[in-house]
What we know:
Number of strands: 9
Number of domains: 2
Shape: elongated
Largest sheet: 5 strands, antiparallel
Number of helices: 0
Amino acid sequence: MAQDVAQRDLDLGGFRIANIGDPAAPGDAAKTDNFHAPLASARNASAGTSLLASPADHIHPLAPDFVVLSDPTLQIVGPKTEVWFGVIDFDEIVGGQIQVGLAGMLQNCLVQAWLDGQVGNPTAGTLVMNIDSSSPTLVPVAAIGSQPFNRPSGAHLLTLTVEAIDAAAEARSLGRIVALRGL
C-alpha cells in the first residue's frame, strides 16, 4: 500500500501524526507557537533558546546601519571655512552610539566634522571627527573615528569645516564624504 509522505506527517511506523506535544528538550519535534508576536530586529542579535518553532525569543540581526553624506565640490581654503552642513535625524539610526568616518581628497588641509554647531559658526558645537593631510598635492585620505559618541535623539546639525594647515601654502579639499554608523 502506498503512503502519501509528501502531504502528511508520519511517524516511523508510517502512521500519521495527529498531535505533537510541546518539546521538552533540544532536538524534540517542534510545533509552532502561534501566540507570541515576533520580536523586533536588533544589533548583535541571535537565535533564542525557545524549544518551540516560534518567534517567542528569536531575533534577526539588523543589516549595518549607515548614513552617508557627500559633497563633491572642490574648495580652495585658507582660514577655517564652513564647506557643508546638513540636518541629520538620529532617530533613524539604530544603536546607542554613533561612529563617524570621514574621507576626501586633501591638500595641506584639516577637515573637521562638528555636531550641533551653528550655521556660520560651526565650531560652537562638538567636534566629532577630523582628518588632515600636509601633502603638497591632492591625496585621498580616509579614517574611521575610534571614539564613538552617544547617539542623540531627534534632528541635529552636522557641519564640515576645512582649514589650511600651513597658511603659506595652497590648501584644497575635494569630494568630502561623511559616514555615520549606528553601533
